[in-house]
Amino acid sequence: MSEGVKFLIELDRFAGIERRYVVKKEGSTDPSFGKPPTARTIEELLKYGVINLDKPPGPTSHEVVAWVKNLLGIPKAGHGGTLEQP
After folding, report:
1. Number of H helices, E strands in the chain
2. How many domains are contained in the chain?
3. Whole-model pTM?
């Protein structure tokens, strides 16, 4: 089983989801281009990671980004797309 599938299974387990994965073809990746998320240090996860956040109504996207930066003690953070509900 590939590291990618193992990682997806761990994410599912954490989220309480049970599903079956079918791997059609195994592949390989050149390790000089990165490493699996499970092999990254905390510093690397904070530097290159993504947080999926379900923003509640009320605070602006800018405010939420400021809170994340403050909570994690990091100098840079941003959001992709809109966090507002239609």
Report:
1. 3, 0
2. 2
3. 0.52
Angle at 72 between CA 67 and CA 78, to 5 degrees: 55
Per-residue pLDDT reduced to its tens digit, 30-49 = 888 888 777 888 888 878 88
Instruction: In whole angstroms, give the CA distance from residue 66 to residue 74.
Output: 10
Same domain, 32 and 50: no
**Do 80 and 54 share a structural domain?**
yes
Residues 6+ apart with CB under 8 A from 86: none
**Of 86, 82, 85, 48, which Cα lies nearest the Cα of 62?**
82
Both 22 and 63 in one domain: the answer is no
